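Narrative of activities, Objective 1.

The group set out to show that a structural description can be obtained from nothing but a protein's sequence at a throughput compatible with the screening campaign. Below is one input-output pair from the validation batch, recorded exactly as produced.
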Amino acid sequence: MANLADIIEQHILELLARSEDLSIQRSGLASVFHCVPSQITYVLETRFTPARGFRVESRRGGGGFIRITKIDIMPGDILRVIDERIGEALDAREAEHYIMYLRDQEVLSPREASLMLAAVRNVIHKDPRVRDAIRAQVFRNMLVALAGQ
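Output recorded for this entry:
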């Protein structure tokens, strides 16, 4: 059985399937699902991230809205992705989301994605900050090598 976050995510994805740009009101969506607006915020912050191919803009206040935009990445855009999205540290979950998104966009082949997943999952270091910094550098280096092909 799907939980509420899954149901809200699916609803938003269905709306996005009709248009690559969606504007919604947090309170309006919360009333549809009989939940608090913070539940909508949670779904947006965890399920509609740049690593999953989305940009979320939020305008607060009486006439506030949330704009969700699907971002498509073309093979030639890999270097732009590196500069715009990958910081100094990258946790394993976020790295996996980037890789799966790039595979789904056919920027990476299934084999390349599989190799990259193995590399970013197996970064070994006791200090999580150092481990995430190493993971970001490994991931960035792999994308630069792919862009150079």
